[in-house]
Amino acid sequence: QVQLVESGGGLVQAGGPLRLSCAASGRIFSISSMGWYRQAPGKQRELLASITRGGNTRYADSVKGRSTISRDNAKTTVYLQMNSLKPEDTAVYYCNAFLPSTPPFNYWGQGTQVTVSS
Fold first, then answer.
1. How far is CA 97 from the centre of its chain?
2. From CA 115, how far away is CA 11, in angstroms rounded?
3. 47-72 pLDDT, tens per residue?
4. Which residue(s) pair with 36 in the sheet?
5. What is the pLDDT of residue 75?
6. How far out from the chain centre does Cα 26 lie?
7. In degrees, to the nearest 5, what angle opens at C-alpha 50 toward C-alphas 70 and 95?
8. Are 34 and 95 in contact (CB under 8 A)?
9. Could you tell me the maximum CA-CA distance found in the chain, to the nearest angstrom?
């Protein structure tokens, strides 16, 4: 089992920054990658950024260049720094942990609301 707890959401003004945190506990040594997703009303959940256990990162085009995913040295907390926020960034943001077990399994946090005001 893996538990994920997100924090850092809230109301942000357009153009401002946001930093989300995701604290993982439990079978963290089984996690091969962690990522941030978001889901806006009426839309599918989309992957924003991910980081592997080896530190490789990738970003969705929608946030590339204005977002950075990182983690602490203990690899228990993952961060998403977003800059130049836009109203269309308004969504519920979810932390994800992927375990390449048999079968593979995804764990999700409870989600944190981010609202960007114009």
1. 10
2. 5
3. 999 999 999 999 999 999 999 999 98
4. 49, 95
5. 78
6. 18
7. 85
8. yes
9. 45
